[in-house]
Specification:
about 160 residues, mainly alpha, two-stranded parallel sheet, about 5% strand
């Protein structure tokens, strides 16, 4: 894991800990050093304070973000596999995936591979790629909201798995 990925890892574990389905104990996935940064790095305020995020992650090492036991590792792996794309069964509704081709946190090759596999198994996914993270802005958000509204309004997904 790279320092750029530390916050994402903490957010994933925090989400699973808050889920009524998974309920992980987040402190089984961090060292004591990482516990001090956990609360701050999983709050929305961290998104608008990049300097503070850098400071909060500066002292962390990849080993600070590892499961404490093999059981905890297995539990996290199982939960992530259940949520991952492609899933264990075909999607029941269309999905929109928007991702950046230049992303140091979620590598584009990972997303492309998951999309390719899911599309080959017949999942209805509309894919939109952007050049880099700076392109993932309000326009992308508004476009995604319009796609969601259209889906609930009965519009069928277009360009399913095009360009995957």
């Amino acid at each position: 894991m790279t320092p750029a990925q530390y916050r994402l890892q903490m957010l994933v574990v925090a989400s699973l800990a808050l889920s009524p389905t998974y309920k992980l104990d987040p402190y089984q996935y961090f060292s004591d050093a990482a516990k001090n940064s956990f609360g701050y790095l999983t709050q929305c305020v961290a998104m608008v304070q990049p300097a503070q995020v850098g400071a909060a992650t500066a002292g962390l090492q990849p080993g600070d973000l590892k499961p404490k036991t093999p059981t905890a590792a297995d539990e996290l792996r199982r939960d992530l596999q259940e949520l991952a794309l492609p899933g264990p069964s075909k999607l029941s509704a269309p999905m929109l995936v928007v991702y950046a081709l230049l992303d140091p946190v979620v590598l584009p090759a990972w997303t492309a591979q998951a999309l390719q596999t899911a599309c080959h198994q017949g999942d209805p996914i509309e894919v939109r790629k952007n050049g880099d993270l700076s392109a993932l802005n309000e326009l992308v958000l508004y476009d995604a909201i319009a796609w969601i509204q259209g889906s609930f309004g009965g519009q069928r997904a277009t360009n399913v798995c095009v360009g995957v």
